[in-house]
Structures are given as structure tokens and as C-alpha cells.
Amino acid sequence: MSVLKYLLLTIATPVCAAFAQVSPDDGSAAHGKGVYEQHCLACHQADGSGAPFLAPPLIEGEFVNGSKPHLINIVLNGMEGVEIKGELYANPMPAFDFLSDRDIADVLTFIRTNFENAGGSVTADDVKLAREA
Amino acid sequence: MAVFPAHIAPNALLFYTGTMFPAKYRNGAFIAFHGSWNRAPEPQKGYFVAFVPFRNGKPSGEWEIFADNFAGTTNIEAPGQAAHRPCGLAQGPDGALYVADDVKGTIYKITYKGR
User: Fold this and answer.
1) A49–B38: do the CB atoms touch at under 8 Å?
2) Considering its fold, how many domains does chain A have in total?
3) How large is the ipTM?
4) Is A82 part of a structural domain of the chain?
5) Binary contact (A52, B6; C-beta < 8 A)
6) Nearest to B69 by CA among B57, B54, B81, B84
7) Which of the two residues, B74 and A20, has the higher pLDDT score?
8) Are B6 and B97 spatial neighbours (Cβ–Cβ below 8 Å)?
């Protein structure tokens, strides 16, 4: 096999990161951190700084600290090709509508109260309302 | 065949035809590795230029890191922490190797003066 073919295979290797399962009995911040590590960290990174040109940073995030329904809908529906602070981020974010209302509420609470954000908490009822809208 | 660690992101490939570098580099392949962003929970990796020796059009030995430390630090947890990331390669008419970085737009020129 040529070097070039192998390089292409390397590029195409899917992300396959295994993280510890999340216990639903933790407090909401700890639970949200676990959801983040399992579903978000591979792209948005441990420090929330994202991946340049691919996945937007969550640090001091306009969307992160902004409207709760808007933020919840990003998680429920995914997103693609977003410009943030003058930089374009091109990787598609898949829909995470398979997560429970509580998982989504807790992970959003986690990112809104970490990574230099001060957006405050999101509740499972907020997520339920957005899902039904 | 040459085998590399996963996710380290080869961005550019250049077969060296110059005569400035020592003979072992002639017709071998330089590869610019942009560095990973999705190796979690492992630390990120790459951010270097590798060399694969060739003989008669086929790889003839183990690949090696030719130029390293573009990132400026060894323990990269997130790709945004890398100061520079190799993304392009070019060979000058004199046989110098140029490496382009896409974090700050730096161009590195690598030359060899012999003994």
C-alpha cells in the first residue's frame, strides 16, 4: 500500500473515544461534567477551547451564555458552519436529541457555569419546553 | 508502507529532490503533520515534520521526526494550545525546505550547511 493511501486511511479513521459511564445519581454539576466528557469533550476539548476552524470554543461563549431555548436547540438539532468572533467553524455538530432532558440540562448548566461563563443553570423543564416547541 | 499514529493529521507531502541536504534525504518524503484535535482522552499529538526514507520509489526504512516542537510545549491537551502547526511544505531552488504554519502564518526555512 502506498504512503498516500495509508495517509488517506489515517485521515478517515473515525473518532472512537471511550469515557466512563455517567451515573444519574450525582449532583447536577458533576453529572453535567460527566455528560460533557462523554459526548462533548472530543471536539470542544477539556478546557472548552474547541478545535481551530472545526469546533467552536465554549469559553466566554455568546450562545453559551445567551438564550436558553437557543442553546438547548443547538444541542437538540445540531449545527453546521457557524461564525463566532470572526472565525468560521466548519465541522458539523450532530443532534444530541437522544440525551435525556436531565442530561441536556445538566451539561448546559456545566458549560454555562464553567469555561469563564456566567449564564447560570438550565433545568430539565427548560429542555422539555424547548423539545415540545 | 509507512505507519503513523492515529489522528496526527498529515497536511502536506513533499518528495525531496534537492542536493542541499545529506544524500539520505534524496527522493525521500517529508510530511507535515498538523497535529491532532480528537485524540481525547489521550493527549494531543503530532505538530511535527516527519521524514520517510525512499529507495527505488519505495519506503526503505523507518520514518523519523525531522523537525519538532512547532507547538512550543510538550503536553498539548487541546489543539488551541499549540503555538504553531505545520500545514504546508515547499522546496526552494537551492534545496532548502520551507514549512508553513497556519496558526500565525509563520514560514520556516530549513537549510543544511554540511560539515
Assistant:
1) no
2) 1
3) 0.77
4) yes
5) no
6) B84
7) B74
8) no
| Disruptive mutation site among A45, A47, A89 for chain B (greatest number of B CBs within 10 Å) | A45
Give the three cell numbers for residue A101.
432532558
Alpha-carbon span A84 to A67, nearest angstrom: 16
- Subunit contact B38:A15, Cβ cutoff 8 A: yes
pLDDT over 80 (residue A76)? yes
How many beta-carbon contacts under 8 Å exist across A and B?
Answer: 67
User: What CATH number has the domain bearing residue A81?
Assistant: 1.10.760.10
Share of chain B above pLDDT 70, in %: 99
C-beta separation of B33 from B47 below 8 A: yes
| Cβ proximity of A128 and A50 under 8 Å | no
* Residue ranges covered by each domain of chain B: 10-110
| 8 Å CB contact of A3 and B13 | yes
Cβ burial B77-92 (10 Å sphere, 16+ → b, else e): ebbbebebbbbebebe
Please, which residues have CB within 8 angstroms of residue A5's CB and are 6 or more apart in sequence?
Answer: none
